[in-house]
Amino acid sequence: MKVVLLSGGSGKRLWPLSNDSRSKQFLKLLKSPDGRPESMVQRVWRQLASCGLGRSAYIATARSQVDVLHNQLGPDVPLIVEPSRRDTFPAIALSVLYLVSEAGVPSDETIAVLPVDPYVDDAFFERVQQLDFVLRDSGADLALIGVRPTHPSEKYGYIVPESAVSGRTYADVRRFTEKPSADEAERLIAEGALWNCGVFAFRAGFLLGELRARGLPAEYRAFRDAYDRLTAISFDYEVVEKVRRAVVMPYEGAWKDLGTWDALTEEMDGPVWGRGVIGPDSDGAHVVNELDIPVAVLGVPNVIVAAGPDGILVADRAASPRAKEVANEIRQRVMYEERRWGWYRVLDYAKLADGNEMLTRRVCLLEGRNLSYHVHRKRMETWTVLSGRGLVVLDDHQFSIQAGDVVRVHAGCRHSVKALSELEFIEVQSGSEVHEDDIERICMRWEDIPNRHSPA
């Protein structure tokens, strides 16, 4: 069995901490078994490894998430990168074709697909492993996992089986129902319906046949080349709801979608994350604070305060799922981003009287990581080292830096920096444009920088 995790999302449901480059699965607001901060994707990746599925897992993702995935899971995490965002049917098809065409997976191999961020116990992934048996035993085209509902939710889709199903058995799927009203959800649960948690499995050859039936390329490189011209459509609408035969297997354990602030704060380790104080007259309040200034809540029960570089949200717990509506109205540059080498936070931006721009960032490079060797044409940069040690290359000349040093990088200068220990510096960009697009990368690896040498 191979496992494909779908990592997508626009990063708006947990605004202001999530953004277009840091979707909800990357927020380190949970705790690992050893007590360290952990994101949803790190938690799932750890659970897959503990259940013996780590070596069989791949992540299908967009280009915008590659850096943060390398940052959180390491440079060797196996990624299948979409050329553009085209919804789940093209993404899953691209992943299967990669596994068959590039990784040599046989057509009778079981492929399990699941979201990258379910909040579940390890037992859930043991259930995922059983999908291989269910496919073989049933002869169905698709095998799904349905979660036993704990209440009549209007937020989830439902899978209605042909007959009652429990334990390790499975049943044919009669129909699917999308996000019903509360009354309809109660009737569905009475029929034995299960929550659709977005987990399903099929034979690789099944999807190859689906592609050929639609006149689409059934080879990885050809499909990738045609990707931008594909219709954006979900796998549910294109395949799951039209399939000849699907079966569902129940999962009786805990399962939760931590996609809203009210759901996420229920699973956090305490009511305050970051610098914050909640008064005794604020029952049910939560503070999530990424800023370096304290947040205090007094006399306001059931409130969620989320503060980060992109903004501050103050919401009644029941209204917090509407954070996405607010985020859709806000247009600004990303103020915090994780990269393969570390992270940066925007501290200030100004448009000067002469038309030039100035941007100030705090930059952190993790030990052993480096920026690409690159050039900016429209701006210069001044770095003031706060802590740590590193090596800098300017136009092929290499020298060491440490706390207190100042480095000036003029427009047109080839440059890079490598952290010998965790390295933090303040970077001031100034020029006609200060934008991420003003970059010409020469090479990515430190070892590939040409002709670098120390000055005599």
UniProtKB/TrEMBL annotation:
CDD domains: cupin_PMI_typeII_C (cd02213). InterPro entries: Man6P_isomerase-2_C, Mannose-6P_isomerase_type2, NTP_transferase_dom, Nucleotide-diphossugar_trans, RmlC-like_jellyroll, RmlC_Cupin_sf. Residues 339-442 form the Mannose-6-phosphate isomerase type II C-terminal domain. GO terms for molecular function: mannose-1-phosphate guanylyltransferase (GTP) activity. GO terms for biological process: GDP-mannose biosynthetic process; polysaccharide metabolic process. Keywords: Nucleotidyltransferase, Transferase. Residues 2-267 form the Nucleotidyl transferase domain. This is Mannose-1-phosphate guanylyltransferase. It comes from Candidatus Reconcilbacillus cellulovorans. The lineage of its organism: Bacteria, Bacillati, Bacillota, Bacilli, Bacillales.
